[in-house]
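Figure caption, in words: inputs first, then the predicted bound structure.
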Amino acid sequence: MPSYDLHCHSTWSDGLLGPGEVVSRAAARGVDVLALTDHDQLGGLDEARDVAATLGVSLVPGVEVSTSFEGDTVHVVGLGVDAATPALREGLARIRSGRTRRARRIADSLAEAGIRGAYEGARRYASHDELVARTHFARYLVEAGYANDVKSVFKRYLTPGHPGYVPHDWVPLAEAVRWIHAAGGQAVLAHPGRYKVGQAGLRRLLQSFKEAGGEAIEVLSSSHTSAQATEFATLARVYGFLGSCGSDYHGPGESALDLGELPALPTGVEPVWRCW
Ligand code: AMP
Ligand code: MN
Ligand code: MN
Ligand code: MN
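Bound structure (manganese (II) ion present):
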C-alpha cells in the first residue's frame, strides 16, 4: 500500500519549510503520494513538482481554501487542481487581498491589548505580503514573550473572545468548491472535527458541502482524535463522501503529526484516491 499524505503547508503560506524541503522530508519519511496544500496559494506547486520528480514522489497539486459557512471559517482542500485555471487563480487572489486587510485589523486589535508592532512582527515570519496568517502572528507573540509556543498562543490570543481575533468574511463554501471543480480537482472538507459548530451545525455543514458537490472529507488529520477518526469514517459513509488523510504538517516543532505519520484509513471508507 502506498503511503498518502494529502494536506501540508510550505513557506508560501504558514509552513516553516520551503516546498522543496517539504517534499524532501516527505520522501525521506516514506510518503509516496503527497499533496502540498498551502492556504489560499498555489505559488509553491512548481518547486514542489520539480523536487518530487527527482525523488520519485507523486506530487498532487493542492490548495487549502479559506471559506465561510454560517459565519464560521471552514477550510476546503482542493486536490489535483490545475493551477493555471483562471477562476481558481482569481478567486484565491481575492481571498489573499482580504487577508492583507484582515492582518492590519488583527494588529489593531492586539495593539488595543497593549501589544505593539504586531503587523511588522508577523510580517517578518511571512514570505509574502499577501499571506500573513494568524500563525505568523502567533510566532511573533512567542518571540515577544506572550506565550511559550504557537499552540499556547491560540488559547489566549487570535481566537474568538480573545485579543487579536477579528471576524472575517472569506468566500462562501460553495464558491470554493466551484473553483476547485473548474480547476479539475476534488473538493475535500478539511479537518471536520475542528469546527466548533455543534452537532446540528456539523450536519448542516456536511449536507451543504454535499449539495455543493464536495467529494470527500478528511477522516484522518492531526486535528482529529482516534474517536473522531472513527466518527468521520461513519459520517463519510452516511453522507456518501470519500475519505482523505492529511497530516496538516506545518514544520518541525509546530505540528502534532509529521509528514506521513498517519494510520491507514478505517475499513469501509472509500479513499479519495480510489480513481487516481
Ligand atoms: P488563518 O488562516 O490566518 O486564520 O490562520 C489559520 C492557521 O492558524 C491554521 O491553518 C493553523 O496553522 C493555525 N492555527 C489555528 N488554530 C490553531 C491552534 N489552536 N493551534 C495551532 N495552530 C493553530
Ligand atoms: Mn495553517
Ligand atoms: Mn486548515
Ligand atoms: Mn492546513
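The chain has a mean pLDDT of 98.
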